[in-house]
Amino acid sequence: MPAIDVHDLTKSFDGFVAVDGISFTIESGEIFGLLGPNGAGKTTTIAMLATMQRPTSGAATVNGHDIVTDEDGVRRSIGIVFQDQSLDEELTAYENMDFHGRLYRIGGEVRRQRIGELLALVRLEDRKDDLVKTYSGGMRRRLEIARGLLHEPTVLFLDEPTLGLDPQTRNHLWEYIERLNAEKGITIILTTHYMEEADRLCDRVAIIDRGSIVAEGTPAGLKASIGGDVITIASPDPDAVAGLLTAPWVSGVERRDGQVTIRLENAEEHVPGIVTAIHQRSIGITSLAVRKPTLEDVFLHYTGRTIREEEASGREAMRMFHRAGRR
Amino acid sequence: MDIVYAIWLRSIKRYLRSKSRIVGSLGMPLFFMLVLGFGLNSIVRVPGMEGDYISFLIPGVVAMSVLFTSVFSGIQIIWDKQFGFLKETLVAPVSRLEIMLGQTLGGATTAVIQGLILMVFALFIGLEPTGVTGFVIAVLFMALIGVFFTAFGIAIASRMEDMHGFQLIMNFVIFPIFGLSGALFPIDSLPAWLRPLTLADPLTYGVEGIRYGLTGAAQVSPVICLAVLAGCAVLMTAVGAYLFRKISV
To answer: Which residues form the ABC transporter domain (chain A) (predicted)?
Structure first.
């Protein structure tokens, strides 16, 4: 039985389609990433799978429980860390955990023991009796993850788990997440708009853009699917450079911000030829870089935009969506 | 019941921790009790009552304190909504009814505590204890006021996006409810056209009930008070639960 099975799931708000008929399957024990810009529909997808919002159409099961007809079954078997903080700042870490344990009807002795273990796991046991309002962003995130694990869920949802954290804390969190997955076998579904996060953590990734899944696979597979290497050339005349690259070994060319990105196999062999060709036309090269493709290139390939451009229009859509929601 | 208790416990912890709120919300009732009480004590005689005006006023001000504290407790759900905590409770495998009942009982409990603190102050300015039975009756009515108005606050909070509307509710709903209730003056001395309004105000029955408990005299029979207020409290809890069920975050 897959941990999560999604069929043609759709959510629209007053004509704005936030999630548009997505389907995917997550096997038990996987770390699965929903990768996409803000406003792509990641959080709405999570909200539907966690029974916080009802789908407009389509169906999904989480641990075999239908998300519409068996809400309580889903809720009992999942843990969730929301994108925005959801702690009670006027309570201590221990009290937040204790409240959660009571909500999930975990008996007193077991509850106390598990809280102790989990607070040790996220290294907060020294601060457990301090009010959460005295905590830093990273500590709060760790506490929320510990809380999400308290009732021993088989699936853990992490919605932008490292948003707004400094690089060091982010690294620590990644280690926790990997350890949880390895040691406890918890299936993890995370959303992120950080490419390197998806690359580092996820066994499989679905790239989601404007409510639809545009590509799905392992990070390595996705990167391989767009051609072996990437050459980026900055030039005063990018159009002319792009016009030159018509050889059969070029599998793709994109122009962005005065830069030309070329996808091809065995880039090292072709660099001299490309440089010579450009030089012969007296076009000029500001800089040239050869690298392996990243998920950023994958995103660019499948959507025709960089994720940063998407961020801008995505935020716009979110704002409109919020306004619509208020009415 | 565990869930109701968990949510109740959280309310109580938060209340006991917010010292400034406890002290702050004693301010206005104390002001009413001292200024109106001493200011009017020598010139006002309440017809049909043996005691002086200040002993007439004290139950009214206790009711006022319970009223304000409980409405505020209910409306606080908006903050839980804004600070994200509400999601944590809504995504748990518990029913909305349990959450709402926990909030209501928590709010009512804090409101009763607030009323009791005020009663202690009142002892120093003229409240004469009438015995255990009277005290228990007064607390019972305070609890019912607490349940009614916390549920009322939750009902309002379920339909509000943020705290901006709070002033509006205070000025156009809560103050009129307080003013019409007979907390400050005997309802018998009101003009006839105002009387139906007073009798339609649930707080009237709460005030009269507390007054009966604390002074032994009231203008509405305590049995009627109990029946009406208890009925209203149940009804409002149902309305609050219904609206809270539809809340979304």
So the answer is: 4-235
